[in-house]
Amino acid sequence: MKQPVDTDYPLSEVPAGARKGLWSTSILLFGFTFFTATMFAGGKIGLAFDFKTMLWAAVIGNLLLGAYAAALGLIACRSGLNSVLMGRFCFGEVGSRLSDFLLGFTQIGWYAWGTATIAIVLVRLLALPESWTMPLMVLFGFGFCLTAFVGYKGLDLLSRIAVPAMLILLIASLWTATRDIGGLDGLLAVQPGDSLTLGMAITMIFGTFVSGATQATNWTRFARSSKVAVWASLIGFFIGNGLMVVAGAYGAIVYQQPDIVEVLVLQGLSMAAVVMLFLNLWTTQDNTIYNFAAAGCNLLRTERRRLVTLGGAFVGTLLALGGMYELLIPFLILLGSIIPPIGGVIMADYFYRHRGHYPKLAEARLPKYNSLGLAAYVLGAACAYFSPWVAPIVGILVAAAAYIVLYEGQRLALSRTVLTQTDAR
C-alpha cells in the first residue's frame, strides 16, 4: 500500500500548489523568534549601554540577522528546499550529513533548554513542590511537539493565536515599565552599570538566534514568491527578534531584570506571566523540534517526519532531565561558531557556483562528498571560533569567500589539465 505524501515534503522541493502567503509565513517566523533566551541577551545590553546606544545596537544586530535570514529565504523560496536539502549540493550526498547532524544537534539543545526552563520557572512562579519539576519536563517535552507533529499547518495555527496574545502582553508590559521609570526622560537618564563594546553587543544579538535564522528555510521554502520570503524573514528576524532584544533591555534598565516573565511578576501580573511563558516557549519549541525533524529526515533519508519528531522530543526531554538548563552560555558560544558557516557555504554555492538555480534534487547527480564545501566550512568555523570580532559574521564571510576561491582554483586546475592533454595530442 502506498504511503500518503507528507505535505511538509521532508525530502523534496515544496511544489507551487503548497506555497503560502506573507501573513502565514511571517507570523510563523514571528512566533519562532519570540524567545526567552533572546531577552537575556537584550538584558545584558540594556545594563551596558544608555537607551539610545542600546537601540542602535539592536537595530544593527537584528538588521544583519534579518538580512542573513532573508538571503537564505530567497534561495529556499526559489529552490523549494530547506538548508539541510541544500546541503546535498554544497557538501555532497554523504557529506551533507555533517550539516544535518550539526543543525539537528543545535535544535535539540534548544528544545532541551526550553523544556527545562518552563518546568523550573512554573514550579517557582506557582510555588509548586520541587518534586514536580521532572514530571513537568516530561509533560512539556512531549506536549510542545504536538503542533510540530501535525506539521506546517499546526505551527501556523498556533502562531495565529499566540503571536497577537504575546504582542498585547508585551506592549502592556513595556507601557507599564515606561510609566514606572518616569517616562522617556527617566529612561534616558539611566546610566549603564556594566561595560560592553558595541561589537560584543552585535555579536550577542546576531549569535543568539543565528542557528534559527539558518534553519528558517524550513518555512520560507513555503513562501509564494521571493518577495514574500524576504519580507517574512525581515519581519521575523529584524522586527520579531528586535522586539525581544528591546524588551529584555527595557526590563534590565527599569527593573534590573531581563526576563519578561519576571518583569510581569514584578508588575503584579503573575497570571499574565504564566500565559506569556507558556506561549513564548511553545511557539519556539514546536518550531525547534520541527527543525530537528527536517535535519533528521535528511540525515536518515526517511520521510517519516512524525516519527523523527517524536524521537527528537524524547532525546530533548532526556537532555532537559540531565541538566541542559545549566549549559546555555557555552552552548550559545558554540552555536555562534559552528552554525553560521553552513549558511555562508550554501549562499556561495547557490549564487556563485550554480548561478542562482539548482537542478531538481531527484535528477541531480551529486558526489558523495563535496570537498570544496567541507573545506570551506571548516575554515569558516575555525575563523569564527578564534575571531575576536563578530564571530558569526566572520564565519559566514570566510566560509563563503573560501568556497569561491577553492571553486575557482579547482576550475582553473581542470582547465589547465584539459589544455595539457589537448597539447599532448
TrEMBL record:
Keywords: Membrane, Transmembrane, Transmembrane helix
Membrane topology: Multi-pass membrane protein
Major subcellular site: membrane
Subcellular location: Membrane
InterPro entries per record: CodB, Pur-cyt_permease
Top-rank taxon, per record: Bacteria
Transmembrane regions listed in the UniProt entry: 21-42, 54-77, 98-126, 132-150, 157-176, 196-216, 228-254, 260-282, 307-325, 331-352, 373-406
CDD domains assigned to the protein according to its UniProt record, in alphabetical order: SLC-NCS1sbd_CobB-like (cd11484)
PANTHER family, A to Z: CYTOSINE PERMEASE (PTHR30569:SF0), CYTOSINE TRANSPORTER CODB (PTHR30569)
Annotated family: Belongs to the purine-cytosine permease (2.A.39) family.
Full protein name: Cytosine permease
Organism: Stutzerimonas decontaminans
